[in-house]
Request: fold
Amino acid sequence: MMKSGPRKTSTTYQVGLDDTDSSDGMCTTFLTFKIINLLTKKGDSRLIDYPNLIRLNPNIPWKTRGNASLVIRMESKLSKEEVFSICKRMVCKYATSKRANAGLVVFEGETIPEEIREFSQRALYDVQRLALALKIMDEQQITYFGLRSRQGLVGALAGIGNELKNDYTFELLAYRKNCALRRSIDKSRVIEMDRRMSPLIFNSYDEKNDHVLIMPHGPDPVLLGIRGETPSAVRSAFDMLLPLKNLLGFMIFRSNQGTGEHLRNELNLSNPKAYTSGIVTGKVNSKPTILRGGHVYFELKNQSGRIPCAAYEPTGEFRMHVLSLSIGDEIEVGGGVRKGTSIHPMILNLEYLLPKMLQPVYRILNPRCPKCSSSMSSKGKGQGFACKVCGFKSFSLVKSKYEVERVISKDQLYLPDLKAHRHLTKPIQRYMLEPHAEFQDALRKNLILAK
Ligand code: ATP
Reply:
């Protein structure tokens, strides 16, 4: 039962949602799309920001896909109880899978408390406990609701605490009417869209691997997603793909995708923690080798400790850059710590490589024969060289030492192939962009939203 009727004045609410999806289907972004349509239809609620799509620590093992948390920030004439009741009804209606450990958080007010912001920052790179989320919410008198294990409350609370104050991007997500119908898209139109709109849109097409990146393959209701720098860019790109079969509707989200926000903290090699993300600087301590499955491994060492690092097969050409590292090279790497098992040690799964200082690498060559120019062979220690072709012998010729040109360069950033990027991975062209101050005004004045 609703406790009170509509108010005359508006109140700010920040609604966090997580874990309403599972590999059986559904998607929390779709539930957000449904709730927003419902709340804004009557005219007593108005969004004050694009819905936020916050990606959290990508190394959380119990995530379904991309560890997304969703936030609706709005002004409403409805009471908190009414907003909560509408959202709760929708969560219960859609989060029906046995594996959907849904979380719903309704925060009233404009200013997010510092404690929630800190919780949120840590959720980008560490494992946060549900007990801590519950304690914070009880202390802050936040209204919440969870289904099954209620783990989704961690993401829902972390979501509202990330206000995307620094860097951010946008994603237009389009949904399908019938999830039983196979998704299909004309690849040439995606390539043309990517050619015309890049770099204002990104990660739509992986040219190197001839791979369309905007269309997922799971059972969820997402038809496609276009990532970009501004709402108008993703909208224009989407328009280039129309008409689309099986299209239900679309919504634009503001996001930390493509910002690299999860790779800010320093990993401590004296005690690396499983499932954390972070960066580490150190020296290459073993020659990188390519092993079964095409994965490349080496050991990294610094004053705190050492850790095996891996560039897995799907990272493509990135592995070749990693493979070209030499013992003693000073590098910075970012990635996620994979838990050790009885078979594998704890491993840092690399998401970028930045060489800081490269060791000179030399090649030692036997002398060339002065008579016939063939490469000579050593006759043994102190025995001189002999030419196998013309038989010329010499005690005076010596080996020569050449510095070999390195395949990688100092201070250049190396990333995995696009198809292996995480949602949070900052694409290479985004390093050239200034933070988005110029887009903020446009954003507030002109919310380009769903139909
Ligand atoms: P999709 O990409 O399809 O939206 P998902 O990958 O977001 O799915 P969920 O089903 O939402 O996966 O599951 C992620 C779970 O992990 C949620 O319960 C969320 O609360 C929890 N979680 C997210 N970040 C953390 C964290 N840093 N520490 C602990 N739990 C977390």
User: Anything to note?
Assistant: DSSP finds nine helices and 23 strands in the chain. The first strand starts at residue 11 and ends at 18.
